[in-house]
Amino acid sequence: MYNFTMSIPTEIIFGQGAEEQAGEQMKRYADRILLLYGSERIFRTGLGQRLTARLEEAGCTVVPQGGVTANADSELIRKAVRVIRDRELNGILAVGGGSVIDSAKAAAAGACLRGTVEELFRGEIEPETFLPVGAVVTLPATGSEANGMAVIQDHETHDKLLRYFPQLKPRFALLDPALTVTLPARQTAEGGFDVFAHAFERFFDLRRESVLLDRMTAGLMKTVTECLPRVIRDPGDLQNRAEMMFAATAAHSDMLGPGGDFACHTMSHILTKEYGLAHGAALAMLIPAWCSEMFSKNGERFAEFYRQVFGEKEPRKGQERLEAFVDGIGLPRKLGSVGVGAEKLAEETMASVPQVGEGFCDGMSEEEIIRVFRRVMP
Ligand code: NZQ
Ligand code: ZN
């Protein structure tokens, strides 16, 4: 039996115009707000102005701070912390994808610290209190809007650093699928594959031992394999955008149950660091490669995966369907150029965590990790 504890305290407001509730939601927790975002895109589309208006109508003071870049660079987070302290802010509204939401979480912890954000993420200091965070999602991918995880990139070393605090679960997430129609095909695909990956990693955590959890994760993956290609073909398809948006939140909050193997996620971070790949793009290479490499360890589990997600009884055909799914959404399955070799990638990956993967097997061996990286080399 799988024993677990789960909690999803984030209030999820889903559907058309959800972002209009930004003011009333935020006011419940704070009244001096850092509006954190990436590029000026949110002001070009009018979203930034609408959010500012709703916050001000609710009686909040709003201080905008843009400039978050993909992978949540720690320098911008340090800057956000300085603004929060200088302007005595007491809450953060994140507007964007995982990088903005994770930066907001890091700043929410960092604002209450003596020490740097990097020290916090390297586990050298611990926060005592956290500012409240709310999220307006414009890219369905990470599920950061309803979980306590934050992933940032060290500005100096480019290492990806992860920390989890239950207190960092956003207080609310405003999910309007219409906010995602401006996403280019590439980012839609990368984000969508990340959603698939969060369910995939849970499916391959054998400690979860539950038919219900298996069917929930497989159902989510099946939904993504159907809806994501439709959204790529027709970016204005709001119904399928809506499916992808809730799938993202469900996949990486506790809604599909806790746990997960996360070997592919652990390996993905080094490809982002060394090859500059977006998170979802790295996973789209690694997951098919991991399946081919690890199949012999537990053929029965793979057969179950291919059957439940792709309806294929024969594993070889199931693997072809997985690869065709990646190809169909326009993501490459191999690196474009040779840089850092598989051995070095494996060495750095192993140095970053006590063990690569847990739940499928007792951690991958160095040889297995090297072979997975070799499979994605050009
Ligand atoms: O700067 P803006 O304008 O927001 O542009 C972003 C960014 O360039 C753009 N974008 C977002 N919404 C858009 C849009 N462009 C047009 N229209 C829209 N509606 O998309 C680009 C990528 O955004 P980003 O936030 O970087 O992507 P994603 O949501 O995939 O987040 C990736 C980050 O999250 C971490 C990853 O490691 C990576 O750093 N993760 C966080 C997790 C978590 N907190 O639970 C788990 C994940 O596994 C992952 O590790
Ligand atoms: Zn992910």
UniProtKB/TrEMBL annotation:
CDD domains with a match to the protein in the record: BDH (cd08187)
GO MF annotation, one: methylglyoxal reductase (NADPH) (acetol producing) activity
Residue span(s) of domain Alcohol dehydrogenase iron-type/glycerol dehydrogenase GldA: 9-177
InterPro entries: ADH_Fe/GldA (IPR001670), ADH_Fe_C (IPR056798), ADH_Fe_CS (IPR018211), BDH-like (IPR044731)
Pfam families to which the protein is assigned, alphabetical: ADH_Fe_C (PF25137), Fe-ADH (PF00465)
Fe-containing alcohol dehydrogenase-like C-terminal domain boundaries: 188-375
UniProt keyword annotations, A-Z: Oxidoreductase
A GO term from the CC aspect: cytosol
PROSITE patterns: ADH_IRON_1 (PS00913)
Protein name: Uncharacterized protein
